[in-house]
Design brief:
It is a single chain. By secondary structure, this protein is α/β, with parallel strands linked by helices. It folds into two domains: 78 residues; 100 residues, UDP N-Acetylglucosamine Acyltransferase, domain 1, CATH 2.160.10. The chain is built from six helices and 15 strands. Strands 3-6-9-12-14-15 form a six-stranded mixed β-sheet. Strand 14 and strand 15 form a beta hairpin. Helix 4 packs across helix 5. The chain starts with a helix and ends with a strand.
Length: 186
């Protein structure tokens, strides 16, 4: 029965494949696919990976729909819904290679986020007085972290679980706590 269910669901994903084929951000989506495939130790063509992640992962669908915003993806969301508790503000500039760890109740509302972001659940990236964070490349944000205001997070930063970040963090740092403090800097 499982095979039949997956087959039918794969047929329902055909419109997604058409969106992917003509997407102006196909290169970015390919980088997302590559990062997810490496993390999950799965190989295959981009089409196979796309079908797999779209069918099994509502958070991947959220990223896919964000990257291909428009009427068509809004319609696709009706029968193949994204993760309703994972929100990416439409004005956020989101780099390629984002990876999520079940991002339940996660909000990404930043000025920009670089490539290869890892984000966990219960994370809030948001604005204060209209100012939003700028997050660099290769940043990892763990469970329950809060990053708010017009601050800059450098490249290669790890933000520990439950951290509250309200000040700039230099590149190559690890921060923890409330308020966040640097415990390691290379």
């Amino acid at each position: 029965m499982s095979f039949i269910h997956r087959f039918i669901y794969s047929l329902l994903l055909i419109p997604h494949l058409i969106v992917y084929k003509f997407s102006p951000v196909k290169r970015t989506i390919n980088m997302d696919l590559k990062r997810w495939a490496i993390e999950k130790n799965i190989s295959g063509s981009n089409i196979k990976l796309l079908i797999r992640f779209l069918s099994l992962s509502p958070d991947f669908r959220t990223i896919f729909y964000f990257r291909n915003r428009g009427m068509i993806t809004s319609l696709l969301n009706i029968y193949c819904p994204k993760e309703k508790y994972f929100r990416i503000d439409m004005s956020t500039k989101l780099g390629a290679g984002i990876l999520t760890g079940h991002p339940y109740s996660t909000i990404l509302n930043a000025e920009s986020i670089g490539e290869n972001l890892y984000v966990n659940h219960l994370v809030t990236v948001g604005e204060v007085n209209g100012k939003r964070p700028i997050i660099g490349n290769n940043v990892s944000i763990y469970t329950g972290a809060i990053i708010i205001g017009g601050i800059t997070i450098g490249d290669n930063v790890k933000i520990g679980a439950g951290s509250v970040v309200t000040k700039n963090i230099p590149a190559n740092s690890t921060v923890v706590g409330n308020p966040a403090r640097i415990i390691k800097q290379e």
